[in-house]
Amino acid sequence: MAKTMTDQQVLDAGPEIALLRLHAAADAQRLADEAAARPARRLSARARVRGALRQAGGNAAPIQALRNVLATRARQFPNLAGYVDGVREAIRQDEWRGGPPDEFWPAPTTWRADCVAAEREIGLTGTNANLWHAYALAVEDLAETSPHVFGDLDDPAEEERQRKEPQRRAAEALAAWRAVPLELMVGMAFTREIGLDPLGNLPERLVAHAMNPAPAPSPRGTAAPGSPSPAIGETVILGGTRFGA
User: Fold this and answer.
1) DSSP string, 11-44
2) DSSP calls for 185-217
3) What pLDDT is recorded for position 223?
4) Theoretical Cys-Cys bridge with 118: which of 79, 95, 128, 140, CB 3.0 to 4.6 Å?
């Protein structure tokens, strides 16, 4: 049989639960801020090629065929060769940090090459290739000559999910904290000398204070004249309810 809490036990538990939720929200937001501040990982060459092949239709054979054509007949296709060089340089110079998009899209253009002429020339190579194959060829060649340009990120979707997870947990913790009765928040703000106005963002301001607490002031209105102030961190009695620091 479940034990029934007395009214006093409920009153005692309320501030303790509120304090736990406040610290949980502050900890979750701190982790979310740290995750957001971390530099994004660089895409691997494998991820770029995989994305390009998806855009190209899935057949990888034209990449090698295109490599053979440019190795032996590049002078016949100067704009196509210029496009491959332009893609290599754009990635090398970190101008294209993102890889091929998830949605089907035309191959990227670069100011370093005449992309319209390159697309026309690639149709004359007899390789059944398109400019996405040329993009993949540029990535493969660059990975051999300059592997440091690429990172180790093979799954951008999973990386994005992992980067968003701390934000999701922070939002859940904040929602749990906002569900605390406002009267308890007001009491906690009073003991921390945090202004009440505007009440609408008081939960967020209390979280911010918990993340970066200012030097604890002497609690107000709790001691008789001439009596010593409570020590920092000492529980303060306010209207019969405890609001620990």
Assistant:
1) HHHHHHHHHHHHHHHHHHHHHHHHHHHSPPPPBP
2) HHHHHHHTT----SGGGHHHHHHHHHHSPPPPP
3) 46
4) 79
The two three-digit tokens of residue 139, written as one number? 């990535």
- Residue 23 has a CB neighbour count (10 Å cut-off) of 15
Name the β-bridge partners of 242. 237
3-state DSSP helix/strand/coil % of the chain, to nearest 5? 60, 0, 40
pLDDT at 238 over 50: no
d(CA 245, CA 236): 8
**CA 16 to each of CA 76, 184, 230: distance values in angstroms, whole numbers, following the listed order:** 78, 10, 19
Tens digit of pLDDT for each residue in 92-144? 999 988 889 888 999 999 999 999 999 999 999 999 999 999 999 999 999 99
Q: What is the pLDDT of residue 221?
A: 47
Of the candidates 115, 113, 122, which has an alpha carbon nearest to the alpha carbon of residue 67? 122
- Domain ranges for the chain: 7-35+180-242, 45-149
Provide the whole-model pTM: 0.63
pLDDT, residue 2, reads 58
Number of other residues whose CB lies within 10 A of the CB of residue 82: 19
